[in-house]
Structures are given as structure tokens and as C-alpha cells.
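Posted in: Protein Modeling Q&A

I'm a second-year student putting together a small comparison for a lab meeting, and my supervisor asked me to include a predicted structure for E3 ubiquitin/ISG15 ligase TRIM25-like isoform X2. I've never done this before, so apologies if this is the wrong subforum. The sequence is pasted below exactly as I got it from our records. If anyone can share the C-alpha cell output, I'd also love a short note on what stands out.
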Amino acid sequence: MSLFETEGPLVLDLSCPICLQLFSDPVSLPCGHVYCSACLEKYMDTDTAHHCCPECQVEYQGPQALVKNFKMCSIIESYKATTTGKVRSITDGDGGDCHQGVLSTNQRNYASQVTELTVRLQMAEDQLRREEEREVEIRAANALLRGKAAKLLEQMTELTINYVTGMTELIEEELRPTEESLGTRVHQVSEIREKLREAQLRAKSLLTEEDSGVFSEGLQEAQPRIMELMAQQPLEELDHDNTSPESKVNPGRACDELERRSAELREGLGTAQRCLRNALNPSEVTFDLDTAHPSLVLSEDLKTVTFSTKKQPYPALPTRFSNFLQVLSTQSFYGGEHRWEVELDGSSPWIIGVCYSGALARSGLASALESSRGSWCLMWFDNLLRSFEQGHDVPLKRTPAVHRLEITLSFKTQRLSFYNVSQCSGKTHVYTFKANLTEPVHLAYRMMSGQPKARITVCS
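Accepted answer (user: helix_wrangler)
Welcome! Here is the predicted structure, written out as C-alpha cells:
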């Protein structure tokens, strides 16, 4: 019978989940769960391939990851000392009336309550310490995330402002010449009008002059000016030179510049957006176009890879694979816990895993993903799954088809695990690498045959 059944709910918090007795030499796992040291050793002996917490199944690195829980030791000792000690009788001897017995019983009950409060207080203090430590960690991580997100959003704002400013200047450059030309014409016609008005007033004034001498003298003075004005370009001809403002815009140049600036904006915002997604989701994965073999086509969101019989006009880069149909992820990973699900066509052979980008050649036989000394990957070929670890392979089991694969990478436990995900049978463990990763790794994919249906999509 367990202690919980005989002594109440308090002991449940002080009991080992395996043996259901008070903790003996309690040890803590990295996940925070506590067990008797001996119980956990027996449990580990039954699962030599993987070391997982019996409750939450989080993996850990064997006995070296166990930490003695001195706090729990102190709580257990305090509990034992209080519960095993007897409350002394208020009266000496064998006698004692009923009242004395009631007091003794009440005192024992009260002592038990005090013990329970003491134990719970110690446990609450321990929990509070852990929660405060976690709060500090989370706030620090959130501060870094806020700063990174703010910087990226500022970049996106700056890109948009630069685009708006540039397009405004372009439109002004196109419209300004027409406006300046029209302004010049308005000024020109205005001057002609003023001169004509002045000559008209002068002529009318002479027509009312009754003194012939004055008239003759005024006419001689005004006549040259009138003849000069009459000889100038007629207003009708100026009017014929006028064209609509729209015809002054160069649509070819303006639209070409618009397209160029829009492409730059899309590229800049796309890059910033992907960086923001990476910040919000550290496990975000997209494929790197600069590494893709020319026969591989990437989707617009860079999450799907398909085969093309026509080689793509990708620029020749030292990062691009040239012999095998391979591609790496844009992101590299060197910490934390990551999980991805990929969807496969189910008929074309493939290799998928992680690798050190610098250790993988880009051409020749040495560029094959499974041959690299810096790769850990799973192959499905001819209905057989095989694992490749740093160039060494191990045949696993025959599998007719794999349509969906889950990949988990834990830097804490140094484990890379693969699971076959099926609608019929659910998630089945395929293989786990114990990988001592010493530098950042990229998700890597190799398409082993050029089939039109061959494809891979990163779903999450």
C-alpha cells in the first residue's frame, strides 16, 4: 500500500512517482521532475537506447544529467522528524482524565497541521524560486525579441519611406518639365498682352487728340512700337504649339523605374519579413536558393522544392550544388529545441537530415549529403530506410512509403530524431542520432531521382 493511501495527500508531493514511497536520495532531471536515485537507475536500465523522463518523456543525457535535490532532501528530513516524533503527554503516569486525552489528541492534530504547513511552505518557496528564475529568463529573452523585432520593423518602415520618397521624386521629375514649360508660356503670353494693351491705350488716346500737331507727333512716336508688336509671332501659332501635360510624361522610363523600385522594395521587405518570422519562430525553415541545384525549383515562399527537367538560369555561386540534386536551409541552428514536419511525394527516393554547411563540398562525389563527415541524415530508397551518420550507414527497416516526416533537434540532449507520421498509424519513431554538434547545422535535402512528381514541402 502506498503512503498516499495511508497518510493523506501531502505525502503525494513528497513521494517518488515510481515506487510511491517517500523520496530516498532524490535526484532531479533537467525537465524538473524528481525521483529516487535507485528508482531512476532501474528505470534507465530498461531503456538503454534513450534516456527519457518517465512522466513527460523529455530526453536527457543519462546519469550525468541527474542532479541531487538537496531541497527535497531537507523537506523529507523535516517531514520525517515531525511525523515520527511523539507528542508528550500533558500528564505523567498512566492516569489522566478524559479532558487530558482530548487535549493530547488535539495537540497531535495541531502538530500534524503545523508539519503540513511547514512542508508546504518549503515547497512553495522552492516553487517560487524556480518561477522567479524562469520569469527572469523569459523577460530577458522577450527583451531581446522585442529589440530584434523593433529593429526589423524599423527597417521595413525605412524601406517603405524610401520607396515612397523615391517614387515621389520620380513623378516630380516627370511632371516638372511640363509645368515649367507651361509657366514659361504663361509668362510669355502675359508680357505680349501687356504690351498690346499699352499700345492699344496709346492708340485710342491719339484718336481723341484734336490738335493735329500733337496727333502727328504722337503717331510718329507710337507707330514703331505698334509695327513691332504686329510683326511678332501671332498668338494662334503659340496656341498650336501647346500640347497636353500627359504627353510630356515618358511612360517607358517612368514605368521601368517604377518596376525596378518595386522589385527592390519587395526583395527588401521579403528579407526583413523572413528575418522577423525567424525571430518569432526560431525553428522557421526556408530553403536557400543560392545552394539549390539548377534542376531544383523553389516556391515563392521558399518552403517547397520540386524537380524541373529544364535547368534554371541560377547564377553560378560557390555555395551552389552542381552534381547532386541538393539544397540547404537558409537558416542555421546552434541551440534550443526545434521541430519540423515535411511532406514528401511518397514515391521518389530522398535523403534528409542536418549537416555542417562548411564540411559539405558543392561538387564531385564528396558533395553527396550522405557521404559527408559532417552530416546526420535519413535515406529512403527502394522502400528501405537507412541512417547515415558522418558517412557511415545503418539499414533500418523496409517501409513502403513515407508521406510525412517529423524531425526533432534538441541541442540540450544532443538528439536528432525522425518520426514517420501517418494518418492511419499516427506517429512512429524511426531513428534517433546521438549527435555531438559542435557548430551550427543546416537542414539538408537531397532528391535522389529526377522525377516530375518529386517534391518536398516544409509544413511547420
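A couple of things worth pointing out for your meeting: Residues 160-272 form one domain. The chain has three domains: 3-86+108-142, 160-272, 282-458.
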